[in-house]
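Note to self: keep these together.
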Amino acid sequence: MRVAVLGLGLMGASLAWALRRRGVGPVAGYARRPETRQLALERGICDTVADDPEVVVADCELAVICTPVMVVPDILQRVLGKEKSRGLLVTDVSSTKTWVVERCEKICGSGKTRFLGSHPLCGSERSGLENADPDLYEDAVTVVTPTPQSTESDVELLTRFWGLVGSRVLRMPARTHDAVVARTSHLPHALAALMVHIVGRGDIERDRKLCGTGFRDASRIASGPPIVWRDIFLTNAQEMAKGLDFAIDELKRLRGMIASGQGEAVEVWLREAAELREKILRLTGKRVG
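Structure:
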């Protein structure tokens, strides 16, 4: 299977490297910067590289767009170029699906190029090709979001493809996906960033000495690429707003319990959270710790 990986940041470079490590390919890569393309070749991440998406996808069966969310439709337009009859399945790795899928299916229209959304639930607060990991997708859940326009053969092809890099595939409507990840991924990132801003309001030179493992662990994801997360928040705005409203209501409830000295209620609130976390991690097969 000849595969094009369009965007060689952490997600794209890790995917290309994983494919080559597992004997899938050849793998063609697209990157804007000459130094990224050179490094991709030097590290054996891609077989070939180019600075034009239309050139990269030539003769490919599958193309994966690995860019910030709002760039995905533009890359797809460039993939189509002047060749509207190109027989190609295109997917992406975006954490938001409805916004992407609606625009990309419209771009493809009724032509031979088809779009079918994907979201691998993996990643890191680090970014860039230099942090690529060929095992990033191993044991990760990847959500595929078929629509009435999707064919079963394309869904099966994409399912097999993600399986090649060790992912377990779930099918889910795009809107359902966006509602769930707003709570499980997008809102936690916003709250991690909020916590850092709160600490930043104090005397950092003094307060940093008291930032222990709790601060480090809880704030880790706030180091993620700002452009990537800006796009995620804005393209899932409705679900993010719901999540933020719930967070505000819950914080007000907690504030009220603390302010009125309701020790037992606070303890119950904390215990429920601890037990729920253990249950969620146990059900997902993650180590509780």
